[in-house]
Amino acid sequence: MSGRPTDPFTTAVQVSSGDVHLHVATVDHLDGPVVVLLHGLGGWHGEWARTAAALAPHVRVVAFDQRGHGLSSTRPSDLSRAAHADDVVAVLDALGVPAATLVGQSAGGHTALVTAAAHPERVDRLVLVEAGVGGDSSSNQQATIDWFRSWPSPVSDVDELTSVLGTTTQVAEVWWDGLAHAPDGGRPRWDADVLAQVLAGIGEREHWDEWDAVACPTTLVRATRSAIPDAQITRMAGRPGVDLAEVDAGHDLHLEQPEAWHDVLLAALSLHA
Known about the structure:
By secondary structure, the chain is α/β, with parallel strands linked by helices. The protein has helices at about 50-55, 80-95, 105-120, 140-150, 160-165, 170-175, 190-205, 210-215, 230-235, 255, 260-270, and strands at about 10-15, 20-25, 35-40, 60-65, 100-105, 125-130, 180, 185, 220-225, 240-245. The chain contains eleven helices and ten strands.
């Protein structure tokens, strides 16, 4: 699929979570079950535009810029895993949603996991996309942050960003649209040192206690060129109530292969017509 998707989000609101404000976008034309979409490190709510459009005929859709990202508070004092989970609850509270399905990619998947562990009454189902229990080595964390720090600022255009990301133009366009744009190019709406703190919280240990506390049905969606250790996926998939699906793509599978991803998601949520 080529070309940018039409923005499906119908409303945007600011939600307070402690001293942080969160930019929340919703597709509110339908009452019913709610699906919250959580982006990964360095991402933004708009990367879920195609996914939101695929879901919108069936459910209410919510996506928000996580703390330190996008149009939410850029430099929050608390970047802990607990603070990220509290943000999800704050968004649900502000929208009057008792419980929801959480769909999270990478770091957003880890946020979904810890939210379900800490607030089981607020989470009906999990879909974890290229997400494990954390515990990355310090060298892997450093390589990730070094990569974010290597981004030129500004990025001149989509072609330059495609080269920086080492990906397709289709994927680069999604990241490009999330930048702050000026006549000389686009600048990230995140600071690398903030991303480093977020990643440190995920990587400080393997969060098996949190995983063991998750009681809701869960679907793991893994890429064929996955960034998640095989041992983690095997252990996670071995628990009752957990399904495993695979998409032929890399870590950003929801951007690289949107149609295959949507098929997997709709099947996981039993939303196929």
